[in-house]
Design a protein that fits this description.
Elements (H helix, E strand, L loop, with lengths): L1 H19 L12 E3 L2 E4 L1 H11 L8 E2 L10 H14 L5 H4 L8 E4 L8 H15 L3 H19 L22 H9 L5 H11 L1 H13 L5
Parallel strand pairs: 2-4
Antiparallel strand pairs: 1-2, 3-4
Helix pairs in contact: 2-3, 5-7, 6-7, 6-9, 8-9
Bound molecules: zinc ion.
Zinc ion binds next to helix 5 and helix 7.
Amino acid sequence: MMKLKIFAKLTLVGSLLLNSCASVPVKSSTQNYCSGYECVVPDDVFDAYEKIKNFYFGASAVCICKRFSTGLTKKERKKLANQLTELGYREQIDLLNPFTTNGMIVYPESLTRSKKFNKIKKHENVHRIMCDMSEEELRYLCEAQERMIRTYIGDEPLVKEVDNCFGVCKVSSLNCDEFYAYLLDGTLNKQEIMDYMKENFPTAYQIVKKIEQLSPSSP
Ligand SMILES: [Zn+2]
């Protein structure tokens, strides 16, 4: 009985809303929410962003960073705004701003309900922290990665799986940023590589430990 009453009330509110709206579908951005440096946007908004940036491998989520050129330029922001209008979004500012904010991580809504979410959250947070790093720290990390690829890892896949790569990427084909993101999200064989770094690249090892502490706990 109780349920029926509530349902009747909701239907009434729904029909009132419908009556007050014009025939053009208008989407609110209630699906969009941000906390600190992380934002969730509706899937169609994320898809529109991805199409504009034309990422070759496709992206599950994105960290906006000048160094990675993932942020929208003024022209691209305008393009996205036009597409949001076509999609029926009237309130756009909260949907556009995350894509131009340096250090912001943006997730499509459906990803937050997926089993992969925690792993991707970790991965993107590694990008966020590395985006903010000093050139000196980055140099330590990238030199260690290059030397490890040449002398220790080679083409041997110290890897369980790497997504977003049409199958499995070779570790040697990952750039410095992706190498550490996949290392700390648990895709690469973390323990073995960390042990090797501790022994051979102690400064880079300390920096990786710091990134690990600053990012959310491992999946
Ligand atoms: Zn990545």
